[in-house]
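If your schedule permits, I should be very grateful for your opinion on a structural question. I have a record of one protein: its chain in single-letter code and its fold written as discrete structure tokens. Would you kindly read the sequence against the tokens and tell me how you understand this chain to fold? Thank you for your consideration; the sequence and its tokens are set out here.


***
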Amino acid sequence: MAITYLLDTNIVSEPVRKVPNQKVVRQFEAVAGELAIAATTWHELLFGVLRLEKSQRRTALEQYLLGTIQAEVPILPYDSDAATWFSKERARLSRQGVTPSYADGQIAAVAAVNNLILVTRNMNDFANFSDLQVVNWFE
């Protein structure tokens, strides 16, 4: 099955929330073989877990990240093509007075250069990027 979707950090973390959104969880499961994350997302997820104090919650999150996400979901690099795309977008947006988050720009770039649909809850974070397909599974 071909990769179709690039998941933002908030989508990857949704299934392990105390009360996950069932619509997102069902969609996540329905397209399981079509998912990927950006290396930037992997960093955000792993950093978030590693900064937690040792606890049952941290152990469960580590197991989810390492045993499920890293084992089953391809992690796509922020490479020279993505860096080129983002630098052009960042220059264009800065001329308009818009300063996107650097991490969001990297994630958007990975989605754009791989022709993937970016899945996020934070639609506004990606609204100013050109030629980027973005969907919200919470809607």
Remarks:
- The domain at 5-135 is CATH 3.40.50.1010 (Rossmann fold).
- The mean pLDDT is 96.
- The chain has one domain: 5-135.
